[in-house]
Amino acid sequence: MLRVAVVGAGPAGSSAAETLAKAGIETYLFERKLDNAKPCGGAIPLCMVSEFELPPEIIDRRVTKMKMISPSNVEVNIGQTLKPDEYIGMCRREVLDGFMRDRAARLGAKLINGTVYQLDIPTTDREAYTLHYADHSNGTKTGEMKSLKVDLVIGADGANSRVAKAIEAGDYNYAIAFQERIRLPEAQMAYYEDLAEMYVGDDVSTDFYAWVFPKHDHVAVGTGTMKAHKATIKNLQAGIRARAAHRLVGGQIIKVEAHPIPEHPRPHRVRGRVALVGDAAGTVTKSSGEGIYFAAKSARMCAETIVAASNSGQRIPTEADLKRYLKLWDRKYGMTYKVLDLLQRVFYRSDATREAFVEMCSDIDVQRLTFDSYLYKTVVPSNPLVQMKITAKTIGSLLRGNALAP
Ligand SMILES: Cc1cc2nc3c(=O)[nH]c(=O)nc-3n(C[C@H](O)[C@H](O)[C@H](O)COP(=O)(O)OP(=O)(O)OC[C@H]3O[C@@H](n4cnc5c(N)ncnc54)[C@H](O)[C@@H]3O)c2cc1C
User: Fold this and answer.
1) C-alpha pair distances (Å), 206 with each of 147, 286, 329, 340, 403
2) Confidence band of 227 (pLDDT split at 50, 70, 90)
3) CB of 214 closer than 6 A to ligand 1?
4) Which of 110, 144, 188, 329 is the least crowded, having the fewest Cβ atoms under 10 Å away?
5) Do 188 and 258 reside in the same domain of the chain?
6) Contact 299 CB / ligand 1 (< 6 Å)
């Protein structure tokens, strides 16, 4: 019978473990910190709520209004195209991760509160993998050293993945994202009831956008940059704090957090009987920096591939079997990654291109297309006339802002 270890119980690990356990496969889910609060904006698309059956209490805020704010502080309101039941979900990661992890355990995954330190790779196709880990169930940080033998490993241990290192999966470039959780006086918080803000400009992020996202009783204010220098990120955070200052008056910082965001997939995402999923594999999209849904989805797809290839745990899948998950993944989302990469290159080049970008966002057709692709992860081809209009608008906005000048 097949034994699978899933290392890391973020959205990726818990999704994989849930799918495996439901199929009756012997599954071990490792998480080093059961109260982990992953540094994250916590914005999730609507399709995640239905596909991953998330209950309403997981969602702190239902955002239906989004403000895009240009380098010269031109504000464009987007969200008019949303239907009454559509929204962007805002959640706290400690709540979302806790729910998904506990559900996987309830469905039969053996949850181990342990830090995996080492993975021994077997020399033959038949031998087991050995995980060495500190078991924290005795309540200590150092824990008790133990080991476990399994036939297959899923590395869902995030951007600093030890599993990726163990299989020499290769490195990726990464951005650093920084975030402050700020508790606001009631009147200020009311403004963010169902509204999120995205700021663009060299002062707030050289490569992406900065955000103010509402949560249960605070807002998350953050930014990211590929220039992973401590001073740079601090200056950019000061930039977003300055731009949003009038809306954050009287705010109190309750948490400061930072974490890497992978920029592209690792050179190897499957090696032997080890598969990487989520941030460990590098599934965050460019432009939007979105990773929660893609982590959960890649992990589910990987686990479904394992269930099918093993006949629900009756045989041990091979490297070729696992690689089928990559093929499916790249076929389904390859274009999404390419388009978002292109958008980032064109629109985040300079403040002039960012002004053009924000101007373009005022167009209803652009808003509809953007929201549909974000909320449902399906790029619905619009009719050719609308597509032509969007293309003309894009070029017009760029030319007006002289954004294409070298
Ligand atoms: C500041 C910031 C803001 C972001 N905002 C958004 C956003 O608004 N929306 C969005 O979609 N994405 C956002 N992202 C990206 C998103 O956070 C990630 O893509 C997502 O968390 C990836 O999920 P994962 O399960 O692959 O990895 P993770 O969430 O990193 O989970 C990995 C888990 O593995 C555990 N672990 C690690 N090593 C070990 C080990 N050795 N042994 C045992 N356990 C281990 C960790 O404790 C953790 O629980 C943001 C990222 C950052 C940094």
Assistant:
1) 44, 13, 30, 16, 16
2) confident
3) no
4) 144
5) yes
6) no
Backbone phi, psi, residue 71, to 5°: -55, -30
Binding site membership of 136 for ligand 1 (Cβ less than 6 Å): no
Report the atom number in ligand 1 closest to the C-alpha of 159. 30
Range from 80-84, 88-92, 289-293, 369-373 carrying the lowest mean pLDDT: 369-373
Give the pLDDT confidence of 61-109 residue by residue, as tens digits: 999 999 999 999 999 999 888 999 999 999 999 999 999 999 999 999 9
Domain CATH for 314: 3.50.50.60
Distance 95 CA to ligand 1 centre (A): 13
Residue 272 region by backbone torsions, left for phi larger than 0, else alpha for psi between -120 and 50, else beta: left
Considering the domain architecture, whether residues 332 and 277 belong to the same structural domain is answered as yes
The pair of structure tokens assigned to 389 is 């209009």
Same domain as 191, residue 252: yes
Question: What's the CA gap between 301 and 23, in Å, rounded?
Answer: 14
Ligand 1 atom at shortest distance from the alpha carbon of 224: 1
The alpha-carbon radius of gyration of the chain (Å, integer) is 22
Residue appearing with tokens 């889910």? 29
| Torsion-angle region of 278 (φ positive above 0: left; ψ -120 to 50: alpha; else: beta) | left
Q: How far apart are CA 81 and CA 87, in angstroms?
A: 11
- Residue 68 and residue 193 share a domain: yes
The secondary structure element, H or E, covering residue 181 is strand 174-183
Q: Is 7 in the pocket of ligand 1 (CB under 6 A)?
A: yes
Local structure of 51: helix, strand or coil: helix
Which is it for strands 65-69 and 195-201: parallel, antiparallel or unpaired? parallel
- Whether the CB-CB separation of 237 and 223 falls below 8 Å is answered with yes
Q: What angle do CA 187, 197, 207 make, to 5 degrees?
A: 145
Dihedral sign for Cα atoms in the order 370, 376, 377, 383 = negative
Full domain range(s) for residue 244: 59-90+173-262
Judge if the beta carbon of residue 36 lies within 6 A of ligand 1: yes
